[in-house]
Design a protein that fits this description.
The complex is a heterodimer. In chain A, helix 5 links the parallel strand 6 and strand 7. By secondary structure, chain A is an alpha/beta fold. Chain A is built from 10 helices and 12 strands. The mean pLDDT of chain B is 83. The longest helix of chain B is centred in the first third of the chain and has 69 residues. In chain B, strand 12 and strand 13 form a beta hairpin. In chain B, 33% of the residues are buried. By secondary structure, chain B is of the alpha+beta class. At the A-B interface, helix 1, helix 2, helix 8, helix 9 and helix 10 of A face helix 1, helix 5 and helix 8 of B.
């Protein structure tokens, strides 16, 4: 090949390479300007408008902001069919993934891109509540009688809380006089009033605790102390007004935040293993309700 | 040359371009950083002003309540008037104020707006705002944001407030008492002002803290409370107003601080260094595209320029190379003025060289002719001397008839030797001349030898240098047979073979040794027995001069057997043109001439 032809060939190759680089850079610049599409996550919560989910939703929104994802809160029913219908609808219409606050993980089905929100260690919370009761009575609770109220014994978290509570009380030699599982709010009030008198009433969920506090306010519990596990402002108010003696408050902000962080990590890295439990909760009573360290918790519940 | 030009131009222009683009990028980057910092400062100033205005309006509310309502009235007698005044002021500021309340020194509620149920034993004396007011009576105090837990409005909701408190003097039944005036400011107002700043996606954000670094507002306040995020607010509390730089969490950040008057609060803008570069990504792509496009254009431009520069030089170089190879192309003249001048100069040089070459050839021919003439002139006296010596000898011996014959033969010989002044004659004339000479010698030597001619017909019309045969015959007689008794034989033979003619003089005389025969033509210093001794060397030189070194005299001799001396020369037909051609010395340069003639024909055809 003559030198002239060789020079021409090198010239053409150089120009082509530079041209390709220009095209690649233009493509990158346009792609950058267009912006990366945000991951869209639907967060499904049964009765999402209820005050008990305020902190959870706040945590979800903060995590979405921190990790640059788009979230949308969806109010769903509690039944498995309701959840699965809503999940399908969101996945088809809008969402890249769905975070569900379900009572039971089995309600989610096998659908891809659907994840259960992080759950608390319910057994441990039950234990902690029992220890708080023991502490309140200066460990002298052998002769005390207990009544336990919850919405449903079929709920996994409720049954775990109850188990943790009962196991600890049993170790102290206590006797649980009655268990009351009722979902109907109206019926529950009269059912509580109709129960045998006990020294301590323990409510294992938000609604039950508020209902028990109401009964205590009207003296229907005949002086029984009310304890419970809750994360609603109603329950906090009842604690403030001393209708509740003491309560375990799970940090829903952190649970919501952590749920989103784990879900985003999973979306970015398919091999990421989601840690399904959280263990942040505090025990509140009248003395420490407005303490500086608990102000943040109250702040998140009032957003 | 072309590729060197392209590479050199491209490298230089690329370097210059990269330096310029680099400087431009650095300049733009610095300018962009300054703009970001300046914008942040401006934004902080504006926001700081809004916060100051809000806090000032709250202080005005507190002042008005104190000086227009509380100080002028007696709590014992004018409670309803005080309540009314407070209500009016509260209603005027209800968008910003959550509640106002007056407590006496022991923490008992004296009045409050809006009218609400105070919670059972809130024990305000243990609350920070109360403690601060009592501790520093002359100032107003702004607390950190906190949950208000004084009143129960029945909504089962808890409000986030900032408490503005001050020590006041109360009139109770005519007696002055100290008390604390509390204005609970709605935190959402400050939160709303700060939210207007909004955190940018490049990581830049703003927060508000007090002089101790305690956070009042932060976009990630909950994450900080939960330990999910850290903020360097405790250190920033000591920063002076203006631009500060820090490294926090292994990240370099620019911190811009604006102080809120009266409160000492600090409005802080945080710009991570990564935020500066993040905004530059698009600029980097743009600069990259610009650089590559410029490179493409520069390389193409360099190629065009170098082709235009080197093309004429290359053509000029090629034509010079062809010249060197012996061709005679037209010198390529083109391109820039300097290159055209160079081409013209080279062309003139070649023309001058050609002219000089022709002059040299002419000069060489002249020189050759002069040499030939000189050699020719060496023969004539030599021959004449011998002949005249013979005639003298005859006249002395009274051999008048023989002398007359000799003189007539000499006259004939001289006439032939003149040959109209030509150097080249035909072999026929040379043989006639030789015959005259031999007739003279036969008389002189009393016919002691016989002469025999054996000449091929084709030899007669060939060209030959005149007077080359006579010296050979002279030598044959002198060295070969002069001392023999009537048995001498001289054989003159002529032939043509492969384009080479040969005239040979063969005698049967004494001959000579081989070594001696080899020295005859080479050793010019030999002492000859007879004559001047220049005959054969002279003949040989003259043939060399006109026909070239490959022709000339060839001697074969054997002692007591005889000698053969042959003249070899090209068999060129004798014509007037060929004669002139040979005499001009062109035979020696015949190949060069042939090439030129062919070139001329070729050019004419083109």
């Amino acid at each position: 090949m003559s030198k002239k032809k060789k020079n021409r060939k090198i010239f053409v190759i150089t120009e082509v390479i530079l041209g390709i680089l220009v095209i690649v850079l233009i493509w990158l610049m346009l792609w950058e300007n267009k912006g990366k599409t945000l991951d869209r996550i639907a967060v499904m919560i049964p009765n999402a408008d209820a005050g008990q989910w305020t902190a959870f939703q706040y945590g979800v929104r903060m995590a979405a902001k921190d990790y640059n994802v788009e979230v949308y809160m969806v109010n769903i029913g509690k039944s498995t069919d309701d959840i699965q219908d809503a999940v399908q609808q969101e996945l088809e219409n809008w969402a890249d993934a769905v975070l569900v606050q379900a009572e039971d993980a089995s309600q989610l089905g096998d659908t891809a891109h659907v994840y259960q929100a992080v759950v608390f260690d319910s057994y441990e919370m039950g234990q902690t509540l029992a220890q708080e009761i023991v502490q309140d009575y200066n460990k002298d609770i052998t002769d005390k009688t207990f009544g336990i109220i919850a919405q449903s014994e079929e709920s996994e978290s409720i049954s775990e809380r109850e188990k943790g509570l009962c196991d600890t009380l049993k170790k102290q030699g206590c006797h649980v006089t009655w268990h009351l599982f009722e979902q109907d709010e109206e019926a529950k009030n009269s059912m509580i009033v109709g129960q045998k008198q006990v020294d301590v009433v323990v409510a294992l969920d938000d609604c039950s605790l508020v209902k028990a506090a109401q009964c205590a306010a009207t003296n229907d519990l005949k002086g029984a102390r009310v304890y419970g596990i809750s994360h609603s402002t109603d329950a906090i108010y009842d604690l403030d007004t001393e209708n509740i003696k003491s309560m375990v408050v799970p940090d829903e902000f952190q649970r919501g935040y952590e749920s989103m962080v784990q879900l985003v990590s999973r979306l970015k890295h398919k091999n990421y293993q989601i840690n399904e439990t959280a263990d942040t909760y505090v025990v509140l009573n009248k003395e420490n309700l407005f303490a500086k360290e608990n102000q943040g918790l109250l702040y998140s519940m009032n957003q | 040359m072309q590729s060197s030009l392209i590479i050199t131009f491209s490298v230089i222009t690329a370097c210059v371009m990269l330096i310029l683009v680099g400087l431009m990028y650095i300049g733009f980057s610095i300018s962009s950083q300054n703009d970001t910092i300046q914008n942040t400062k401006t934004l902080l100033n504006q926001t700081g002003k809004s916060v100051e205005d809000y806090l000032y309006s709250m202080r005005r509310v507190s002042d008005t309540i104190y000086y227009n309502v509380v100080k002028e009235q007696d709590f014992w007698n004018d409670e309803s008037e005080i309540q009314k005044g407070m209500n009016l002021l509260y209603e005027g500021s209800s968008d910003n104020v959550h509640s106002v309340a007056i407590y006496n020194g022991s923490g008992s509620l004296m009045a409050a707006e809006p009218v609400a149920l105070q919670k059972e034993d809130p024990n305000v004396t243990k609350q920070d705002w109360f403690i601060q007011s009592v501790a520093e009576m002359e100032n107003m105090h702004f607390s950190l944001p906190h949950i208000q837990n004084l009143f129960d409005d029945g909504t089962r909701h808890y409000y986030w407030v900032i408490s503005l408190s001050r020590m006041v003097e109360l009139n109770v039944n005519g007696n002055p008492e100290i008390g604390v005036l509390l204005v609970d400011m709605d935190y959402s107002k400050i939160s709303h002002i700060m939210d207007q700043l909004d955190a940018k996606k490049n990581g830049q954000y703003y927060y508000l803290c007090d002089q101790n670094g305690e956070i009042i507002y932060h976009p990630k306040v909950m994450q900080i409370n939960e330990g999910l995020y850290n903020e360097n607010s405790s250190v920033v509390g000591d920063y002076k107003e203006g631009i500060n730089h820090e490294n926090f969490g292994n990240k370099d950040r620019t911190i811009i601080v604006d102080t809120i008057s009266y409160t000492g609060w600090k409005l802080v803008g945080v710009i991570p260094d990564a935020a500066f570069s993040q905004g530059m990504l698009g600029m980097r792509y743009f600069i990259g595209i610009l650089v590559f496009l410029l490179l493409m254009m520069l390389i193409a431009l360099n190629r065009i320029v170098s082709l235009r520069l080197s093309g004429p030089i290359m053509k000029l170089s090629n034509s010079v190379r062809q010249h060197e190879a012996g061709e005679k192309p037209q010198i390529a003249i083109g391109g820039a003025l300097e290159i055209r001048q160079l081409g013209h100069t080279i062309q003139r040089s070649y023309e001058q060289i050609d002219m000089l070459m022709k002059e040299i050839v002419v000069e060489q021919n002249e020189r050759r002719k002069s040499e030939l003439d000189a050699l020719q002139s060496q023969i004539n006296p030599h021959f004449l001397y011998n002949t005249l010596e013979s005639i003298t000898w005859m006249i002395e011996g009274q051999k008048n008839d023989e002398a007359v014959f000799m003189i007539s033969q000499l006259a004939k010989l001289l006439r032939f030797s003149l040959s109209k002044g030509h150097t080249v004659i035909s072999v026929r004339n040379e043989l006639q001349q030789a015959q005259s000479y031999m007739n003279i010698q036969a008389v002189r030597y009393k016919n002691v030898f016989s002469v025999e001619y054996d000449i091929e017909e084709s030899v007669y019309d060939c060209c030959i240098v005149k007077l080359v045969l006579q010296p050979l015959l002279e030598n044959a007689i002198a060295y070969g047979i002069s001392e023999m008794d009537e048995s001498g034989e001289i054989h003159i033979k002529g032939s043509v073979k492969n384009g080479i003619a040969e005239l040979a003089v063969i005698d049967n005389g004494m001959g000579m040794e081989k070594e001696v025969a080899e020295l005859v033509l080479t050793d010019s210093n030999r002492v000859h027995k007879h004559g001047s001794g220049v005959g054969l060397v002279n003949v040989n030189n003259r043939i060399h001069l006109l026909f070239g070194k490959e022709y000339g005299v060839h001697i074969e001799s054997e002692l007591d057997e005889g000698t053969t001396v042959a003249i070899r020369f090209p068999a060129i037909p004798y014509t007037e043109e060929n004669r002139e051609f040979i005499e001009q010395g062109y035979w020696l340069r015949k190949e060069e001439i042939t090439n030129r003639e062919m070139q001329d024909v070729k050019e004419k055809k083109e």
